[in-house]
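hiii so um. not sure if this is the right channel but i have a protein structure encoded as C-alpha cells and i wanna go backwards to a sequence. like what aa goes where. can anyone help
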C-alpha cells in the first residue's frame, strides 16, 4: 500500500477507522469505503447556468480518484454520503465515458448512494442501492449530521476545511472532524469547495472538544480545533 493510502487510524464509537489522505474513510473490519459530496457534474452545471466558467472535467477527476481508492483498498462496499450529483439533472449531463466508468465501478463493488439535498433523485438501476441512511453495526451513515447526541454517526454535507498558519503562511486543507462519537467527512469532489471547521454551523454539532484530521498530500494529521483559525467560507 502506498503512503497516500495508509491514512490515520482513529476511533469513532469504539470502531477503528482510517482517514485517508485522498479524503475518504475506510472501515477495515467491514472493508467499507465511504466518500462524501462528490458533486459530479458541478462544472457542467455552471456552464449551463453561465454563472461561472469552469473546466468541465471535474467528474472525470473525481471518478479517477475514486477508482484509485477502490483499486488500492479493495472494499466490499462503497458508501457515497449524499450530494454525489450536483443537481437533479446532473445524471442526464454525464458524458458517456463517465457514465460507463460509474457502471464499471458499480460492477466491481457494491455501491450505496445516500440521498443528499442536491441529488434527491436516485441514480439509474444497476448503479447500486439507494437509501436515506444506513445503519451498519455501531455506525450510521447519513448525508447531514443530526443535531444532538449521535453516537456512531458518519456524515458529510458541510465540506469541512481547516485553516492553518504554517511558517507564517495561511493554508486551507480539507479535513475530517470528530469528537470520537460522530464524524464529518470532507468533500471528495474536485470542485466541492468548503466551509471553515470553526464555523458555528459545524461547531454547534460538537459541544465539547473535537479534532480536525487534516488531509495532506501523503498523510493525515490530527489537530485540536484550538489549533485552527477562523477564515472565510471557501468555494
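sure thing!! here u go:
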Amino acid at each position: 500500500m502506498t503512503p497516500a493510502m495508509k491514512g490515520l487510524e482513529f476511533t469513532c464509537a469504539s470502531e477503528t477507522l482510517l482517514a485517508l489522505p485522498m479524503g475518504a474513510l475506510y472501515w477495515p473490519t467491514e472493508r467499507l469505503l465511504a466518500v462524501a459530496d462528490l458533486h459530479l457534474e458541478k462544472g457542467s452545471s455552471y456552464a449551463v447556468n453561465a454563472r461561472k466558467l469552469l473546466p468541465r472535467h471535474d467528474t472525470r477527476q473525481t471518478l479517477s480518484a475514486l477508482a484509485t481508492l477502490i483499486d488500492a483498498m479493495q472494499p466490499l462496499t462503497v458508501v457515497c454520503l449524499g450530494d454525489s450529483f450536483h443537481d437533479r439533472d446532473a445524471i442526464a449531463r454525464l458524458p458517456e465515458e463517465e457514465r460507463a466508468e460509474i457502471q464499471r465501478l458499480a460492477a466491481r463493488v457494491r455501491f450505496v448512494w445516500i440521498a443528499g439535498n442536491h441529488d434527491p433523485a436516485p441514480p439509474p438501476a444497476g448503479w447500486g442501492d439507494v437509501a436515506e441512511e444506513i445503519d451498519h453495526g455501531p455506525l450510521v451513515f447519513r448525508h447531514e449530521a443530526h443535531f444532538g447526541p449521535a453516537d456512531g454517526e458518519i456524515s458529510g454535507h458541510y465540506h469541512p476545511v481547516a485553516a492553518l498558519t504554517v511558517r507564517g503562511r495561511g493554508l486551507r486543507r480539507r479535513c475530517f472532524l470528530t469528537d470520537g462519537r460522530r464524524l464529518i467527512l470532507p468533500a471528495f469532489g474536485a470542485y466541492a469547495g468548503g466551509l471553515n471547521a470553526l464555523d458555528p454551523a459545524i461547531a454547534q454539532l460538537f459541544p465539547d472538544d473535537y479534532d480536525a484530521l487534516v488531509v495532506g498530500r501523503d498523510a493525515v494529521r490530527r489537530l485540536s480545533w484550538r489549533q485552527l483559525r477562523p477564515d472565510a467560507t471557501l468555494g
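oh and The chain has a mean pLDDT of 89.
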